[in-house]
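thought: fold this chain, then report.
action: predict
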Amino acid sequence: MTILEEIATREDLVTRVRVLTGEDADAARRADRTPIAKSDCTYYCPDAATAERCIQSLRESDERLRNRPEELMLWDWQCTYWEAEPGNPNGGGTVLLGVAWYDLAFFDDRRDAWFGAMHQRIYKDLGIPLEDITVTHWQLITG
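observation:
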């Protein structure tokens, strides 16, 4: 049995599907900016309806972001993915996305915005409790 045949028969594997395209998959969108930091975010959604609300909210946020003037583009969304939770009868799973940061001072000031009052209201409206959200920051080290 080949590796691909073996993978195709496993029921415990999770499939990741890109649901929104971000700057990491769109060279024109990134343009000449170089990310200096990245945030990896995950949102566990217990059911399909919560996942739909989360993805739609991110889509709307992305549209607002891309309508900003270029000089305010200090960060951008990276691709957003959906991973269905194996065996979840309600269609739940995890939404994953990244944030590319282009300005160090802005990153230092705003990297914890996900925990602020505005974002907490959004999470409540979506039906995602704070304990079902993770954010991990990564910073580029230049030599």
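thought: worth noting. The mean pLDDT is 92.
final: tokens above.
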